[in-house]
Structures are given as structure tokens and as C-alpha cells.
Design a protein that fits this description.
mainly alpha; 2 domains
Length: 91
Amino acid sequence: MVQNMDVTFEQVLKNKGIATRHTRLHRPNDNAHIERFNRTIQTECIGYYWNRSVTLQSQKDKLTKYLDHYNTKRVHLKLKYRTPAQMLQSS
């Protein structure tokens, strides 16, 4: 069943013109920045486990608000205490 979901997911992305790229096997550092972002989302926003008692729309709303906060209000050490939006504006 999971394999069918993956095919559907890949098809949806392809239909929307989104290219996918897979990391190499046994190379965890290939996508370390993505894994770190996922951990940040978990610790600061949605938690480590999906709360089934919360509606999907509520979870989407919470994530949308958090992503706005992450990109426009939350300063990042790696960006010299700037937000991603500020970093983009300065380049």
C-alpha cells in the first residue's frame, strides 16, 4: 500500500511540474539541511506525532502560520541573525 501512495505522490508532483530528486542510499548527510528543517517543524510547530483528534485543516492552518513566522519573523543564526525573507531581500 505504501508503494502505491509513493507512486501517486510522485505523479501529483510531476503533474504540477515539480521535479523530484532522491538522495543516495546510506548517505544521511546528502539532505542534512532538510532533515534539520523537518526537526525544527516538529519541535516548534506540529510535534513528533500526528494528533488524530486535530482536524487536517487545523493542522494545515497551524503549519501555514508557522511557515510565515519561520520565514519572516524567526531569526536564524546561520543567516547572521536575519530572517530568510531579509536574506532574500539583501541579495
